[in-house]
Amino acid sequence: MSTEMKPIGLNIPGNDDWVPSMEDMPFHRLGGEEGVRALAHAFYDAMDAHEPALARLHELDEQGRVSRGMRERFGLFLIGWLGGPQHYMEKHGHPRLRMRHGHFPVDLAMRDAWLRSMNRAMDARGVTGGVRAFLDKRFADVADFLRNTEG
User: Fold this and answer.
1) Of the candidates 5, 58, 82, 122, which lies 20 to 30 Å from 48 by C-alpha distance?
2) Contact predicate 92/73, CB 8 Å
3) Is the pLDDT of residue 42 over 90?
4) d(CA 110, CA 32)
5) At what angle do helices 129-145 and 108-125 cross, to 10 degrees?
6) How far are the Cα atoms of 64, 84, 104, 115 from residue 146, in angstroms, in the given order?
7) What is the DSSP letter of 60?
8) Mean pLDDT throughout 44-60?
């Protein structure tokens, strides 16, 4: 079974002044559940291709790629975090990001590798404009928040 996701249309009008609202969250702009899942898969595809040290910190499949389960779990997390249904919380409880990442050394290099993977994923998905600017900031804030070691 292929893990390749079919293209999902994005709802990104040309308004670079965009800010989220209850009616217009990043979840909606990225194409709903399918679009956010596609972003999660693109993220791990980029990580597999360009950030092998970071990929190896995840559960890998028989081909040495980040596993389907990890991709799906991150997709569920992103769906809720980006303003969609809270499927992750219903299934796994509160994300507790710092606790879940606490057993890995997250330094500047790992933070930057994670951000490069997400930037490549957003590029691959065609995320631009105001929603891109908003997500660039949010992802950078969270990635920096998860740092737990110097360097």
Assistant:
1) 82
2) yes
3) yes
4) 29
5) 160
6) 25, 23, 10, 12
7) B
8) 95
Q: Two tokens at 59?
A: 């559960």
Contact 134/19 with Cβ under 8 angstroms?
Answer: yes
Strand partners, 66: 60
For the segment 85-144, what is each residue's pLDDT rounded down to a tens digit? 998 777 877 766 655 656 678 889 999 999 999 999 999 999 999 999 999 999 999 999
Closest of 144, 147, 135 to residue 36, by C-alpha: 135
Name the residue among 83, 66, 77, 67 with its Cα closest to residue 28: 83
Report which secondary-structure segment, H or E, holds 88.
Answer: helix 87-92
Check: CB of residue 79 under 8 Å from CB of residue 85.
Answer: yes
